[in-house]
From TrEMBL:
Listed Basic residues bias regions: 1-10
Region (Disordered): 1-21
InterPro entries xref list: DUF983
Keywords of the record: Membrane, Transmembrane, Transmembrane helix
Protein's recorded name: DUF983 domain-containing protein
Pfam families: DUF983
Residues spanning the membrane: 79-99, 105-124
Provenance organism: Pyruvatibacter mobilis
Amino acid sequence: MCGARAHRQPTKPSTPGDTLAEFERDDSAPVVSPFVAGLRGRCPRCGQGKLFDGFLTVAPECPACHLDYTKVDAGDGPAVFIILIAGFLIVGLALFVELTYQPPYWLHALIFLPLGIGVPVGLLRPFKGVLIALQFHNRAREGRQHPTTEG
Ligand SMILES: [Zn+2]
């Protein structure tokens, strides 16, 4: 970390009644890389507080900067990415091993069952952290037809 963190003035205040306003990127906050924060399981705004309370459960708020995590929703995104990427790699590796070495099936089971369980489980938390940090960084929200106007 070089310590060169940009501080910008807020350009648009959040409107009351905006359900995701608490989880939007605050322009006055230090810029933390969403990939670094997500992979480390840290807060997407300050990069210090823990994002998870348990293995995959998102904490209610950041213990360092009190960013509200209750509006966070990564949905099925991490699982879909992991199924596609890890499935492609592990099945491809199993096919390569079978076609090249033709080992007995018990050896396939010994290699690829732990690999097929361990790799996806190991990737779930970092992928979920990165997706949540990217949602925060890119101000992702549900689509709306018209912006809400007060008055
Ligand atoms: Zn924080």
